[in-house]
## 1
Amino acid sequence: MYAWIWRHLPGNVWVRLAISIVLVLFIVYALFTWIFPWAEPMLPFSDVTVDQGNVNDVTPNPSGGLPG
């Protein structure tokens, strides 16, 4: 597939490389702008199965660092 795209791009190697970079950037932009927001409500990322437990188990260190 990539070889087919490369063969059909116009220009020499540097022009093809520039066009390929622009195509990849456009695809990434389209994914983050339209595709991922559209698909996000259908994905089970909000179905958390980890129990929170007792959140008060960790006591802060008076010196400001991490306990331990």
## 2
Amino acid sequence: MEQSGLPFFRQRLIGRKIVIILPVIIIIAAIILTFTALPKKYYFTVRAGDLYLVRGSSSGWVFSQRSSALEPFSVKGLDLKGITGVAFKTQDEAMNVLRGLFQKRVQEESEALLVKEKELANAYSDLLRDMSGAKAAGTPGLEKNIEVLKGWLEIHNAKVASAMPAAKS
């Protein structure tokens, strides 16, 4: 009788092990399938003040992989709610949106700075004239400042010339 009870006990232990181990295996398999089978999308995310492009099933997943298409850079102080957390089908689509956003920002900031630089250009021209006069009168140590002012004014004049629309013939 002891022999007939022993296999039943072993079968019962094996059955309990299966009941415990099988759900664990199913959960692990579901997690693996989730990360491999779901379509991957691209997301912009900000971590520690830097902007990253990540590839994953969702922007919030810890297992998302950083894309090598974008070298992370600081975006502290910028409002990027329009692009962070948005799913992009391809890496190129994400980069095109980012490129468009920053090209627009650069254009706006350049135009705003050009207005301020025009005001400074008059003051710098006057200062350059006066420094040149002081140098001609024998004041030492003005050469470097004069060269810097001349350089800045040349750059400014080139910007102004390129910003002006071409004259119609």
## 3
Amino acid sequence: MKNTLLKICALAAVPAVVLGASSCATDIGENKSYTLEDDGTYPAVSAAYEQESRAAIDRWKSARNDEAVVKQVAAELYAYACYNEEYIDKYVYFSSQTGSTDLGSKGMGDVTTQNYKLIVHQGEDTPGYKYHYTLKKVNEATGTIDTFRSFFESARMRFVTDTDKLYRFEGDDIRYEDGHDMSSEQPILTCDWKTGSDWGKDDPPIVKREGEKLTLDGIEEDIIQIAEGNGDEPVIHGNVNILAENIVKSASITEGKADGHSVYEVTMELDVDVANADGASVAMLKNANSASECGWATDENGSGPVITYQIWDNGLLKYYKIDETWEGKIKVLLLSYSGGADTETEVWYSYSQKDTDMTEKLAMLEEAKKQHG
């Protein structure tokens, strides 16, 4: 589904998950599909950085024509929005990324990657849950990518429940749902799940970030520390240290309405030279793309990476899109190939009780446990 901007006030509901089946090779059952029904509904949870976000918005309103202020506010709001997820009670998102990878004479490939991630943080009466799947499908390919198609395609799910137990699923027969193909507005991937390794393995509990919330300087320090390799998944989206000095080349902010509340749409173009000179940004980019000697490049129009995002008036993310081009040495098994990629990623969020309900998913897990034995 293509994003509808603030002109129409809200995004339509977005198809979100596809479920499936299994064990060490035990099929679990038919796929089930979930949708984000409330992505246009005002969040039913509080935001840790609401006060800071509203203050930044007020600064923008007081200096709309000051380019430096607009760029600074745009970067700050993005950082706050990403880090809200560390403190929020629950959220779910669906993302779809389509990218073209070019290895020159070695071939090319067009790949779609979709994620559905549902997090319920541990509370006084509720254990923490994580339900996260990633599906990757090669739509077309030639040369090396076609030869190693199975390496580029995958279906994996991490299900953390009972507070600290991990149940991993692996999928096969990755395909588009019936009635969906690449000509659809938003084709949805599905697969057949099988229970895999790491079945009932101890795993860190799903809890909120401990201690006082990070300041803006603390957020930048956290971005850098994670990028330098403490083993954690980056909190900042887009693999970029958005708080690095001068990394935002240009920015614009507009205000609209959705569900009776203000929604702010922000567009930021990143400075390619600054991003490629920032160690944390490059480290995250390399890690995310399994590439070496990796860096951003301008697109055919001479533009650097562009991040477009929407936040509610309390600072929580509603939607974001990242358009980027990068070049480097792409790892395929033990070999590296010089190449580049153009990708577009879209992500939709919901915070409602309906969309974050774990009942059906937990029932699926319990059935898998029975079959797994």
## 4
Amino acid sequence: MKYEKVNEKLRIFSCSISDLTSEQAAHFLQLWEDGATLGMLSLFYDLEEDALVLNRDNKEYPKYLEMAEFVLSADDKTLESFEKSLPESTRETFYVIDNFKRQRKARQEVRIIEHQQPIYRYSPEGDVLRELCCIRNDWLLLSLVYNYGFIQGKRVERRRKNQKGGAKA
């Protein structure tokens, strides 16, 4: 499906109800209570397009666009207090946007991990993973998990160094 770009950097797009496929429309209606209409749709996450798609026919479209741009740009601490201030009627929309943000970040991490070399099976780390593999029998998955842990450790170390360097300045 072709969506209209609203904010390419944040992967926000829009469409009207008439642009939805019959499968999408049926899917949304199945999720909702009896009597719900597609006009109630505020936004949704399109996994195939990796896009947050807003219903531009919704009367609250400007409000939801503003919320999406804010949530996708804000840090976790800011979002925590923002969530508490939301009326109950908009929390579900907030959760969809926040979930999109978290899934997108996780996919970016996976793309980084996939570019790492698998752990050599006959190294000290490989010996431990090989033993775990006997239990789980999924070498590649264990190798990716190890690489992710290694990357996270490097990030913590860099943050620590940057904090120490910043404190001296």
